[in-house]
Write a structure and sequence with these properties.
By secondary structure, this protein is α/β, with parallel strands linked by helices. It has helices spanning 59-71, 91-108, 126-143, 153-158, 162-175, 202-215, 230-237, 254-259, 273-288, 292-299, 303-309, 317-327, 346-359, 365-378; strands at 3-6, 12-15, 35-38, 75-78, 112-116, 146-149, 180-185, 220-226, 245-248, 267-270.
Length: 383
């Protein structure tokens, strides 16, 4: 049945929804790449909250979505920016999310890594930043999950230069019980992280980042790079010490970075694999057989959707991710913690639906069509 979707100019155009989903099935873990999907949280739509209230989470739906990702062989990157850390989910909520998800991972045999940050403080001295990191690292390690040392707004505001980053990260790596993933999140994802590693010059920042790793290679499992710059990521991964992995966080160029070249490849830790989970898993299993062309044939067509969801202002990509989870039937509503469902426009949602439907991402295309029609009705769209 035809839908009439608004474009960026306010013009309605006819769209014929797909009738059958892409045929993919759950499968085992991968052999050629380590792949994490950052996962969103599902809000409790019945909670009486305001945008300034602590997050009210629907724990059953949130954990069910993680089981969905694990069933396809994906690891879960928990309590990251995709879960609205710093954009609706505070540290108390993140700590509970880490504990619950880590316990669920243990119960089902799923792989999990969790974000360690400093979002219980907004600023302070270097000692206070270290203490905040230490508190969160203890929670993650006690849960049994791998730690991801996230970029810190408080450190970015406090540090006077590269030496402060070397001191703080060196201190944390020395005390980490197991190798961690270091996360470099660019300012397109969080403007407060401009100048991270002590410089707005990315070459200088890269030098400091590599110095941190070189001083503690046994404590760094890998790095997660979210700069949306494929050339820079390739250059960086070629300079890593032996045994330190590069996990791409580039939601614009991930197929080519995961496929790699004659000198290496990137593993993956991606927010776009939240909506792409089953299709991404299918593609990586094809890559496991050595079929790079088949991998690219499956994953390259998804880039248009990813670039759409992650378009500037990039930090609001979470709205599109949750929107698609609602259309796909992973949750019963389109509400987000902090009211972030209002962060994108109706034409943006319409294009996201069209691109996702064209890829066959919706397990029940009819349900997705009905929910898209409900949204159009809510906005008063009449053909």
């Amino acid at each position: 049945m035809t839908l009439h979707l608004p474009d960026a100019n306010g013009t309605l155009r006819a769209y014929e929804p797909r009738t059958e989903p892409l045929a993919v099935t759950p499968g085992s873990a991968f052999t050629s790449r380590t792949v994490f999907s950052a996962a969103h949280v599902v809000a409790d739509p019945y909670a009486d909250v305001s945008p300034d209230s602590p997050a009210a989470v629907d724990w059953d739906a949130t954990l069910a979505f993680r089981r969905h990702l694990w069933s396809h062989g994906l690891g879960v990157a928990e309590a990251m920016d995709t879960a609205q850390r710093g954009m609706g989910l505070d540290w108390a909520g993140a700590a509970e999310l880490i504990r619950r998800s880590a316990a669920e991972a243990k119960a089902v045999g799923g792989r999990i890594a969790c974000g360690v940050g400093t979002d219980q403080i907004t600023g302070g001295t270097l000692a206070e930043v270290r203490a905040a990191y230490e508190e969160q690292l203890a929670v993650v390690e006690e849960s049994g999950a791998q730690a991801i040392l996230m970029a810190s707004r408080a450190l970015a505001a406090t540090a006077q230069g590269p030496d402060d980053y070397l001191e703080v990260y060196g201190h944390l790596l020395r005390q980490a019980a197991e190798p961690v993933i270091l996360h470099w999140l660019g300012p397109m994802f969080d403007p407060a992280l401009e100048g991270y590693w002590g410089s707005s010059d990315l070459d200088a920042a890269t030098g400091t980042f590599l110095e941190v790793i070189a001083a503690h290679p046994d404590k760094v499992d890998g790095i997660k790079v979210s700069l949306l710059d494929a050339r820079r990521e390739v250059d960086l991964r070629r300079r890593l010490p032996q045994g330190v992995r590069c996990y791409t966080g580039d939601d614009f160029n991930y197929p080519e970075l995961i496929a790699g070249d004659e000198q290496g490849f990137s593993h993956a830790l991606l927010g776009i694999f939240d909506p792409l989970g089953p299709l991404a898993a299918e593609a990586v299993r094809v890559l496991d057989t050595g079929n790079t062309e088949g991998f690219r044939a499956l994953l390259d067509p998804t880039v248009a959707l990813s670039r759409h969801l992650f378009q500037a202002p990039t930090r609001f990509y979470k709205t599109g991710v949750v929107f698609l989870a609602w259309l796909a039937g992973h949750q019963s509503h389109f509400a987000m913690v902090g009211g972030l469902q209002s962060a994108r426009s109706l034409p943006h949602f319409a294009r996201a639906y069209e691109l996702a439907d064209g890829l066959g991402l919706f397990p029940d295309p009819k349900l997705a069509e009905e929910r898209m029609r409900t949204l159009l009705d809510l906005y008063g769209v009449t053909p």
